[in-house]
Structures are given as C-alpha cells and as structure tokens.
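ESCALATION

Customer reports they have been waiting on this structure for their group meeting. Please prioritize. Original submission:
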Amino acid sequence: MASLSSPPSNSTCVQSGRIRVLKERSRASDGAVGPVVYWMFRDQRIRDNWALIHAIDQGNKANAPVAVAFNLFDQFLGAKARQIGFMLRGLKQLQGDLEETLQIPFLLFQGEAEKTIPDFLRECGASLLVTDFSPLREIQRCKEEICKRVSDLVTIHEVDAHNIVPTWVASEKLEYSAKTIRGKINKRLPEYLIDFPTLQPPSRKWTRATLSTDWDGLIANILRKGAEVPEVEWCEPGEKAAMEVLVGSKNGFLTKRLKGYSADRNNPLKPRGLSCLSPYLHFGQISAQRCALEARRVRKVCPQAVDTFLEELIVRRELADNFCFYQHHYDSLKGAWEWARKTLMDHASDKREHIYTREQLEKAQTADPLWNASQLEMVYHGKMHGFMRMYWAKKILEWTTAPEEALEISIYLNDKYEIDGRDPNGYVGCMWSICGVHDQGWKERPVFGKIRYMNYAGCKRKFDVDGYIAYTKRLVGETKKRKAESLQSQKVKELRS
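Update from on-call: job pushed to the front of the queue and completed.
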C-alpha cells in the first residue's frame, strides 16, 4: 500500500507532495549506499522530468551513481508498429542525449518488468528505485509485484511527473466531473505550476558495464511484428520534435496556430487547428507542465485561446487520471455512475436500426458515410479528430447489441489505431460517450436512454460534413499511394542487392 508520507521537503528539490513512498527499506546496508535507478516508462524525456530530477538529487545526496532503466512491454495492451515504433524512435534519441549531456546510462530490458527490474536492482545493488506514475491497472499491479520482489535494502519512490498537480494531491477521491475537480486543481496550481530547476549530471558516475542496444534491429523487428498497423508520417518522435510542435518557428502551436484554436478546435476539417501535442504528451516526450508554462507566457496575445488550451491540458487531462486512479473499472460498465448503468440496462434490448460486428466496424462498412470517414481517418492517419471521436463512439453504442459490447469495441479500435491509445484520456473518452461518465442525464430516448445523444443532422449543423468525408478520402488515398511507392522502392532495393 502506497504511503503519502514522503521524504521531508528539505531532503529533495522536488516538492514532497509529488512523491509517494511505495516501499521503505526495512534494514540498513552494511556498506556504501547503492545506486539510484530510475525506472522510466510513462515520462520518456530528459527535460522537465521531475522523476529524473528526483533520482539525480537523491543520488547526489547519497554520493551514489544513477542509471535509467526502461522495460519494453511487448505489444502492451495491443500496441502495434504505429505506437511502439514511435516510442522506440523517441527512446533511441533519448539514450544518446542522456548519455551525452548527463553521462547517465540508459538500459533497455525486454520481458516482464516484474522480473527484469528487480533482477537489475539486485545485480547493481541499488538502494533506491524511482518510478513514474500511471493510474492504469496493469502498471499498478506491476509495481505491487516489484515491491514484493525487491530486497529489504531497497526503497521505492513513485513520482507524478505527468500531471502538473499530482493526482493524489489534486483530489483524494473519485471526482464526478470537471466542475467538481476544477477548483481543487486551480487552488494548487500556484504551488505546482512552477519553473523547473536546471538539471546537472550526477556527481558520481556510473562505472559498471552496460549492454548496448541494437536500436535499428529492435525497431525493424517491432515494425515487422506490428505491421498490421503501420507507422504514421505526420508526427516525428522525440523531445526536440515535441518542442517544435509546441513553440517551433515554422508551424508551432503557440507561435503560429494559437490564434484560431478556440474557433477551429471543434471543426474536423481543420486538424491543424488542434495543438497536435497528444502523441508527445501520451508518451511523455513533452511535459504538460512545460506546455502550460509556455502557454501562460503568451496569454496576453490570445487570452481566450490560452484559457481554452489550459482547460484541456490541465483540468480535462488530470480529470482522466483521477478517474482511472480511483475507479478500478475505468474501462467497464461497472465504472459508470449508477444512473447511467440503469438507463443503459433499461434500454439494452431496444430495437436497433443497424447491428454491425466488430469486423464490419473496423473496416468502416456501415451505412453512415460520416462514421466511415472518421473510422478511416483513425485507421490510416492514426488520429481521429476529437469532435468525431464523440460521434464515432456514440454510434457504436447505437449499432451494437449491448452497451458492454459497444464499450469493448470502441476501446479495442481506439487502442489499436490511435497513436495515443491505451491512455486515460482514451478510456474516459469512450466512457463519456457510451457510459455518461463526467456528464449528466439528458432527455430519454431509445437505445441511449439518458446518455447524451449525437446524430448526423447535428454534425451537419456544426461543420461541413461532405467536406470532411472528401478530406478523409484524399487522406486515405494519399496514404495508400505512399505505401505503394514505399513497397515498390523496397522491392527495387532488394532486386539490386
């Protein structure tokens, strides 16, 4: 059981509220203090990373070296080449930067983290393990098992470097909606939305031998195994690319695209009206705190756009983490509010105009051209527009035999094709659309009950539906053409060799 009692504030340059003690060493070491290991997984960056800052700080205080370990979960929750390829390319850059700028080794393990991490801690005689925070069940279970397996000489600290206000600080309970958590988060922002300290290399260097990683071979193998969902070209991985998307001089969100954010973000025909930061936030290649700090600096230029962006970046993202952290059934009908479960069950046997299988939905074989377009955008582009994701999930509820099936299919498709799948935001997005989480009851109607309803006619009133369908057809056509050209080029190379 994690404890909120953490190292006293004078023992670390990271705020004590950001750290939870998962395990306290129960006996002292006979010799020198062992190394500090940072097990990185959710926050895959060097810059603006409170967990890395804490690991280096604790290492310096104990005159101990620091290493970063990463465990590659093979096809974690259905991830394919699209997601793992993006992640590994970012990690390859990270390793080079980490070893060059901070002289900290980066060790990549493959297999079950419950085994690889404790084994490494034992081999190097570590005294402290620092880990990222994630509210997802699989990660929580993994940490519990690691706590059981490590030596009594090891302390384990969990650091929330993903949220601006740490999840357990923002609220100690499951929040009902954005309205109930907004004030709590805003109250703590002055304390937590602060500048980051300058990161310095550890005072004691790592001297143990470390295995090198064959990045090119590893990436090629992952791309081959997950080829069913290929990589996308529109977002370049890594910390540098993430900062370019945020504040770049060519097409950065805050420097070039901010002005139209409030008006354009709900128009599926204007994908560049969005920040385009979600892949980087999901993989932790950029800090939400950095995004907020940079946005506040330009607030005078576009106050409404910045306020809207900060609401999404802070309140909505942290509400999603709150839900997944405090609601164990965050991807199940069991996790819905009682009123929503009742109304969905009351209407579970209502007659549906259409019933589609998972395979038909995955192949965009429905009678609704708008829905088909949104599904194809996700399959080929790796990112469905946020407005369309609501419509898309609600139609799945309308076209399947039961709400449980609708939720299962929506999560399956989201996690398989979205570059930022397997994320609290994705689970909450599906739960909001299908199970009314963080929403209220609306006028009762067939199939939906009191769950908020969306339809084709409503979309036509909000944006150019025909234009969006045409845009998606062009997108799919261009993607298929590039793939064909790439395959042809590859065949030519093989013939020449």
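Sent to customer with the following note: The chain has a mean pLDDT of 94.
Escalation resolved.
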